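Crash report, auto-generated. Payload:
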Amino acid sequence: MTAHSSIKEGTPRVSKTKAAGIEFSAVNMTFADGTTALKSLDLVIEEGEFVVFVGPSGCGKSTALRILAGLEQATGGTIAIKGRDVTDLGPQHRDIAMVFQSYALYPHKTVYENLAYPLKIRGLGKAAIETAVAGVADLLGLAALLQRKPGALSGGQRQRVAMGRALVRNPKAFLMDEPLSNLDAALRVEMRGEIRRLHRRLGVTTVYVTHDQVEAMTMGDRVAVLRGGELQQFDAPQRLYEQPANMFVASFIGSPAINLAMAELGAGSAAVTLAGNAIPLPPSRRVEGQSAGPVMIGIRPEAFSYRRDLEHDVSLTITPDLIESLGAELLVHFAIPAASVPVALTSSAKSAVSQISLPGNAREVSTRFVAKLDARCAYAVGQEATVWFSTDHLMLFEAATGRTILASAPMLKLPV
Amino acid sequence: MSDSISTITRGSHHRSRRDGWTWFARRYGALLPMAPGMLFLVLMSIYPTVYSLVISLFRWNLSDPTRMRFGGWHNYGLLLTDATFWNAVIVTFKFVTIAVSLELVLGLAIALLFFQRFPGDRFLRAILILPMVVAPVVVGLLSRYMLNVQFGIVTFVTEALGFGRVDFFGEPDLALGTLIVIDIWQWTPFMFLIMLAALQGVPEDIIEAAKVDGARPVRILFDHILHLIRYPVAVAVALRLIDAFRVYDIIFMTTRGGPIDVTQTLSWQIYDAGFKSLDIGYAAAYSWLMLIIVVVTVTLVLRLLLNEQASR
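Recovered output after restart:
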């Protein structure tokens, strides 16, 4: 622990020895009522890493965290923290600290007593406790609140106390269960940065659970995407965005969500046909051994451009039916005449909305797309326009399973 | 206020009957639906209370009801110098403190056990609360037969175990203790039920946070759970205190105050004074002293249970 606190800001968080901080091996969880929360979870979190568990509600992310904390007993598999098997140990013996969604502050104790509690339990002397609490209070700006009870604090202050109670001793790992979800949007963004900076400073292995993909992307060194108790992908945020393992990850990561539609892959994967337009694939983007037939196509809203350039060389003629302004950018909504992808393969909540057919186009096959375009495009609702994209940013998924056939190429750094 | 002012300015010239009636209805109309309840309260509660206070100041024996003389504090003075009164105070306090505190501890212990959930716990819980639904008179009657020194089942058991015949109600050293045990048997389920409900109201995440902070179960109980359930506990204790102070039924069915005076509680003595000696003024004064004792005790106990926390 102390070795990590010496790591200076800006240095890589992951230590060179790559010691396993936390290890899930084939962890299964089936509740008494028969629901399966986790299916054979294998995950190795490196020492000092900040890992985010993300997924829609019911995906098992909180269960995984609670099993790691010892608050829930897994029905199978083992958990190790810093090389020590803790599978059968209670939370008292795991030397971890946790921040709860509700903060779970002790309502009958003052802020000082809340912060001092974990140290008091460990039998520290009064002077040592005072020093440690003062240090944490200083770090989190709680010094003026020490004599108050939690009931007299604002949501943001309570959140800080909960953080402080976790920070006050040097645990082997921090576990955070949606710690920011009860804060308002502005405070959430602020605390997001603060938690990241704290982690950089302390270098303690952190597992952070959230349902918010923006939080996951911005905070995690690596992100574990879960769905229905199964790990979909465990990767750095940028890789989740560019090279999702399957259509679920592709649709879960990114906002607005990726545009998905049914398409047809030509022979030798030389071209893919979307809504009647054959898009030729350059040799570098062809998929070896992929037989021709129906596939699912994915294009991120950010992949579109309003003008043709070196990068954006494939065109699509659209008629915007809704334009939302974000200031610098516009969200241009349009329909394309292609079948929608099956909901079962995407992150359900988002697709359920896009699957609602509007009365006007109920008879024809159509799918809603969104393009995030520079505000200079000056497109107008109802006026035909052309958007451009690159085959580099085109993704293809297997029609039956949603597995990724072709991921987008890593971001190109081309001069525009 | 503003209504009456506006009425006056509006109708200063010809204030009709109708205006006056509206003003009256607005001001006092709400009293009408409250009237039955208030009438009931006055007749059934306030009048008897005041009346008992009044007669406690009179020398009045119902053996000669026409002879009612004002005595001022006479009855109270007599009581405070009466050894049997002080004996009753001591007996009652012994009964109340031992019974209620044991009920509290046992109720909490059983509630903690049932809080863990185990197979068959619902059935067992239903069985456990049965004593509470038996009328205290019946409990007294049952224990009189069960503990009967001649033919009681308990006597059979003590003889079989080689203790011989034990006269639980006749032995001065045992009588009060036996009554306490009977009260505990009947009323621990009440404490248990309230404690269980209170425990179920403790936020689970606070217990989990304490576990993660490293606290063992016993510490969690004393550091957090007891603090978090103190309001329901205080209510339960207050109810049981008031109830235990007026213990009468089981005494009536078993020891009838004896042997000698070891089970003569305050309510027994009041019954004795009022309905055996027919000294109704004295009994009224007795009741008022008992009321003061109960109110002071309950207030002190509640303060102890609730304020200890506020000062920390």
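Post-recovery validation: Residues 24 and 71 of chain B are 45 Å apart (CA to CA).
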